[in-house]
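Run G-protein coupled receptors family 1 profile domain-containing protein through structure prediction, thanks.
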Amino acid sequence: MGLQRSFSDITIINCALNLPLIVISIFANSLVLAAMWTAPSLRSPSTVFLCCLTVSDILVGFIAQPVYIATELTRAPFLYGAMFGLTTLACGVSVCTMAVISVDRYLALHYHMTYPHIMTAKRALYITLTVWLTGAFASCIKLWNTSFFFYVTAVGIGVCITISTFSYVKIFLIVRQHQLQIQAQHQAVQNLKTANRTLHLNKSAINTFIYFVFMILCYSPLFASMLILAIYQKHETEAWNFADTISFMNSCINPVLYCWRLKELRTAVLKVLRKMSCSHIGKS
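Sure, done. The structure for G-protein coupled receptors family 1 profile domain-containing protein is below.
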């Protein structure tokens, strides 16, 4: 009886933690999406990936988490399939997009002269579509085989983390090399423009590295739980559900990091907030 009550308390606490995350995720990511939509200066192939990440984070808060809470509280069998499908789609697209962004930043640094020709808006859209189709396919595996679903989820998260880690190790080495070059370039006036571009790319790489660190912190518990459940599915307990909540938390953290690290985006978000405030005052 005591054990059952403990699990019930865990469920209530877990659901209570998700409620504020839902509000923050929807509101913050919607602001970021609106800012990117209204600010022409933010439109670029790299922004396509950022929009993809923002949309997936909105879906986490708007659809995946409410269904997750309903499933946890009701234990309705028909909700389980929807919960696994939606959470895998939204969170899967989010973590995959973070890996894509890390590769994109590596390409921007390594091929900084030819990058605009390598990563076009059309190619970015194709990559984004592939990410969403992959997420949709992964979300359907649970209907076929539960154990294989846990394996695929664990492997998918592991692959994304590995790709991001490799990309940021390469980025670190490039940034260190650029810092040495910048010192020499600043001595020549004719190379100042190249130095400024390199500084901008380095700053962009550092920004996305911060996103990567938080992705690791948020998705590592889910990776561990999926891997353990794939091997020892009989040991599943409600305590594992906190790993889901921690992964949901990443959808709230991302927009805060965007606005903190990207000045142009922060300015655009503030403009959207001012317009909302003026509109509200005008109506009242």
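DSSP finds nine helices and no strands in the chain.
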